[in-house]
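Anyone up for a design puzzle?
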């Protein structure tokens, strides 16, 4: 009698893969990020168009989004931790897509009847529409943050099980999907708005989110059915057992079964909660503040605290393909065609970084991968520092980096040598729109800007590999009951440093000061990697430098901190 299991055919293997929970998560994530990237690109364009080709509304929207995640990141994470996984995923999905649909319809109305609306009540109705658009779009972003935390930071870990290699492969695949959608989705919606109109663009995005929401909802349900472990959370199980041990006599006296007695306590955070009627109004109003404080304390007490901080410090940089670097590139004579090619090369480098992460992790281990990635990123950023002093660089310390801001506040006319620079104040961000229409004098040498973008693109390999390393460290070392709040605080830290880098540019917007911003950015990146080196050396000691040794068990931090009440 043959005991060996019959080998699966190729068709069966392919069918099993396409019906597996892993592939369904990829599909849901691809649909979700595609809609997010289209909306994030389009909403900035819509706000610019609504306010007469000014980036004021876009800047306000960016500040509102960053401030909201900064303040509410821990609270969102705490909500993710305290509620069942399926409920969190479905609620955040419905809220996010519904807000985008409503916002898209509102924008369609404003675009179609803008002149009539502007005449009502001296323009206050139009101003109210602007406020509603920004508020609803911000709600969509907060819901997107909750979706990202629950799917990418929790569901992926559960689906991967205890297999660290499978988790690394899933994280890398998710990041590749992010990279591809970050390029292709804006291209699609941009073409629709170019050949159609902003009205058609709003309608397309609203329709896409409506259809995508239904498909994603079904995919979430299928993943949940195929992965029984998603139905329970470790923190809730331990809490129920502790409560049963603390009050066994009360359960027997009341005549309730253990299941019935523990049911109301599943979502409580303390062993002896006070009844709602005994809590004052001030106590209930201060509950979010206590949750916020407890979340940050829990983050600080994690053994991966310095690893998370190191990732946050990488957000304090102008060395990325955002509106800041694009605006500076225009002042240096690069046109849109060249910049699009550079952005494509940056995306390819990011994908190479995700592939390199999986290979290096298998050879050297997870913690060493972060150390190697950080060293590679810093080595590439040296080119950016060299570009500051290379021929063709506008870097000039004799020009005050604050003169544009000073002239704007005092009301004086800008100095002639600064007229070709980025606009003052918040107008620094407006250079990405205004600069292409202006004639930029040709440079004598393109060596400086070439070195700058060569360093930025090459550094993406190490950057994305390092980002995946820290992400998996958080996934593997944070206990299940705190994954949401810790990742929520991590998002808040990322937004905080990102906000600081925009403030830095607002204070020094002229091109002559961009070299100073480059040096400050590289310094923050270096400080971030120094923090990671401290974490890695504390975890591995001198074994950190044995980069060719296989992954060892010691790399998973042994001491797991006790659960923090949040």
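Challenge accepted. My sequence:
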């Amino acid at each position: 009698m043959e005991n060996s299991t019959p080998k699966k055919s190729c068709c069966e293997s392919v069918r099993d893969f396409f019906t597996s929970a892993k592939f369904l998560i990829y599909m849901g994530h691809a649909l979700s990020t595609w809609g997010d990237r289209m909306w994030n690109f389009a909403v900035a364009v819509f706000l610019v168009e609504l306010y007469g080709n000014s980036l004021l509304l876009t800047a306000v929207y960016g500040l509102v989004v960053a401030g909201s995640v900064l303040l509410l990141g821990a609270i969102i994470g705490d909500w993710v931790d305290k509620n069942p996984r399926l409920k969190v995923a479905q609620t955040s999905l419905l809220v996010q897509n519904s807000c985008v649909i409503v916002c898209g319809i509102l924008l369609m109305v404003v675009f179609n009847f803008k002149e009539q609306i502007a005449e009502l009540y001296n323009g206050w109705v139009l101003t109210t529409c602007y406020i509603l658009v920004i508020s609803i779009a911000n709600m969509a972003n907060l819901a997107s943050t909750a979706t990202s935390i629950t799917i990418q930071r929790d569901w992926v870990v559960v689906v991967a099980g205890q297999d660290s290699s499978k988790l690394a492969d899933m994280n890398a695949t998710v990041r590749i999907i992010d990279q591809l959608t970050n390029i292709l989705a804006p291209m699609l919606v941009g073409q629709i708005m170019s050949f159609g109109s902003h009205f058609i663009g709003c309608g397309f995005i609203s329709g896409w989110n409506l259809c995508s929401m239904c498909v994603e909802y079904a995919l979430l349900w299928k993943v949940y059915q195929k992965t029984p472990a998603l139905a329970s959370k470790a923190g809730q199980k331990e809490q129920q057992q502790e409560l049963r041990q603390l009050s066994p006599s009360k359960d027997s006296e009341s005549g309730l079964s253990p299941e019935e007695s523990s049911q109301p306590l599943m979502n409580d955070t303390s062993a002896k909660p006070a009844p709602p009627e005994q809590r004052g109004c001030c106590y209930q109003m201060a509950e979010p503040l206590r949750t916020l404080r407890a979340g940050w304390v829990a983050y600080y007490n994690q053994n991966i605290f310095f690893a998370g901080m190191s990732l946050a410090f990488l957000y304090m940089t102008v060395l990325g393909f955002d509106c800041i670097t694009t605006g500076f590139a225009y002042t240096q004579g690069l046109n849109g065609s060249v910049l699009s090619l550079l952005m494509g090369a940056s995306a390819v480098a990011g994908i190479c970084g995700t592939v390199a992460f999986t290979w290096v992790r298998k050879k050297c281990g997870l913690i060493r991968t972060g150390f190697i990635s950080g060293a590679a990123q810093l080595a590439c950023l040296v080119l950016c520092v060299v570009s500051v002093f290379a021929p063709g660089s506008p870097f000039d310390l004799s020009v005050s980096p604050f003169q544009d801001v000073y002239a704007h506040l005092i009301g004086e006319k800008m100095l002639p040598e600064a007229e070709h620079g980025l606009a003052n104040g918040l107008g620094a961000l407006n250079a990405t729109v205004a600069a292409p229409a202006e004639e930029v004098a040709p440079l004598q040498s393109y060596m400086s800007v070439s070195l700058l973008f060569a360093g930025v693109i090459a550094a993406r390999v190490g950057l994305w590999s390092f980002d995946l390393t820290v992400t998996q460290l958080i996934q593997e070392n944070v206990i299940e009951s705190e994954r949401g709040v810790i990742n929520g605080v991590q998002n808040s830290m990322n937004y905080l440093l990102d906000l600081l880098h925009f403030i830095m540019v607002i204070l020094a917007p002229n091109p002559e000061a961009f070299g100073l911003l480059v040096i400050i950015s590289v310094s923050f990146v270096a400080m971030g990697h120094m923090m990671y080196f401290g974490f890695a050396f504390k975890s591995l000691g001198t074994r950190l430098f044995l980069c060719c040794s296989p992954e060892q068990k010691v790399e998973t931090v042994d001491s797991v901190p006790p659960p923090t009440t949040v």
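A detail worth pointing out: Residues 96 and 144 are 6 Å apart (CA to CA).
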